[in-house]
Amino acid sequence: MIKPFSLQPLVHLAQQQNDAATKKLGQLNKQHQTAQQKLDALQQYRKDYQLKFQEEARHGMAPTDMKNFQDFIARLDQAIQQQTAVIEKAKAGVQSGRTELMDTTRKMKSFDTLAQRHFEAEKKQEAKSEQRIQDEFTGRFAARRAAEKDGDK
Description:
Blueprint: H1 8-58, H2 63-152
Helix pairs in contact: 1-2
């Protein structure tokens, strides 16, 4: 009978950690994607607003309107800078998540390898034991036949 692998709780824990790291990386990727979409939207909005400003300026505008456009564009530029910082932070988080996933995957594979070796060794041991029993049975059977032949003489 095959003995259970004594490190099975660690194998299970490594699998749970790997699953958690995979889920975390997925969330980090989603956060990065969302942040990038926000940046893209801000940049497009700034571009559109800049075009609107240029169009208005061609037709002439009051100095206060010009100042309002410029102030708003400056606020958009600040928002773009802040969102760029958010994206950089998200990129770092994704990279950290990838590293964590690689580490947990390596650990899980190591434990899986140990478990596989354990089961292979147990199977070999079981096969040897069965062969020993079979050899013993065959030996006893041959000894009985030999004894019966000697008794018949």
